[in-house]
Amino acid sequence: MEFYNLLEKIVQHNETHAKWLNTLSFMENTGARKISACEHPTEVSLIQLKHAAEEHRHAYYLKKQILKINPEYCKTYNSNELLASIATRQYLHSLDIKACKYLQQAFQLTKEELKYAAYLFVTYAIEVRADKLYPVYQEILTKTSSKIMVKSIILEEEGHLEEMINQLDEFSEDWKTHADTVLTIEKELHEQWINAISKEVLQLNYA
What we know:
This protein is an all-alpha fold and 207 residues long. Helix content is 79%, strand content 0%. It is globular and about 50 Å long.
């Protein structure tokens, strides 16, 4: 199902919409935890701390939006409160593993260097995706006069993307070539995730 049409279906049903918000919250929280896990024991940049803090805040903000639908919905990240929980849990984890494998071959890095490279390239790929996902979601929210808003997240994600590009410029002159490979990996995983959500939404809404 085309992404725009999928989101249109999601926002029409309160419980499904709450699960979508919870799924996004889970992804933001997972991203924040992965950024923190990539930190060097001592050499942690201000930007890296900022990104982890902001991703955690996005997770909190999205979770809080669920209260506008129904305070009883999606209080945890348990599988029954996420959309396509298996694909959702695998998405960022698989991206991390596949990106690390590629970056290790491309750059021959130490363990700590690989952690930092993974932070740069995986976060970049996720920010590129967020730059596409959240504006489409906000467009549908606006069109349906929803109480839910993600405009503040859109602004911060745009800033993150710019910051990631600046850091990648410092990391490698030909980072774009390597980033394209990571983006290709992410695109495939994203399609698998969206397909899994589409299948579940159709079953939920038309059962």
